Amino acid sequence: MLSIKDLAVSFRTRRGEVDAVRGVSFELAKGETLGVVGESGSGKSVTSYALMRILDAGGWIKAGEATYSGVDLRRASEREMRDIRGREISMIFQNPRAALNPIRKVGAQIEDVLRRHGKATSANARAKAIEALEAVRINDAAARAEAYPFELSGGMCQRIVVAIALACDPRLLIMDEPTTGLDITTQKAVMDLTRELIRERGMSAILITHDLGLASEYCDRLAVMKDGKIVETGPAASVFGAPQDVYTRRLVDATPRRGVSIRSLLPAEARTAPPPRPALGGPLLEVLRLEKAYPGKSGPVRAVKGVTFTIREGQSVGLVGESGCGKSTTSSMLVRLLDVTSGSILFRGEDIAAIPAKDFIRHPLRRDIQMVFQDATDSLNPRHAARDSIADPLRRLAGLSGARLKAKVEEAAELVGLPIHLLDRFPHQLSGGQKARVGIARAVALDPKFLILDEPTAALDVSIQAVVLNLLADLRAKLGMTYLFVSHDLNVVRLLCDHVIVMKGGEIIEQGPAEEVMDRPAHPYTKSLLDAAPQPPAPAPRLRAAV
Amino acid sequence: MAAATQGRVAAVLSRLMQALPVVFGVVLVSFLLTRALPGDPAAYFAGDAATPESIAETRAKLGLDKSMPEQFLIYVGDLLSGDLGVSLSTGQPVTTELARRLPASLELTLVALVVSCGIAIPLGVLAATRPGSWIDHLCRVLVTAGVSLPTFFTGVALIYVFYYLLGVAPSPIGRLDFVYLEPDRVTGFFLIDAALAGDFETWLGALEQLALPAATLALFTLAPLARMTRAAMLSALSSDYVRTAKAAGLTTGKVLFGYAFRNALLPVVTTLGMVFSFTLGANVLVEKVFAWPGIGSFAVEALVASDYAAVQGFVLCMALLFVALNLVIDMAYAMIDPRIGFAAK
Question: Domain span at residue A332?
Answer without folding.
Answer: 272-357+450-461+481-535
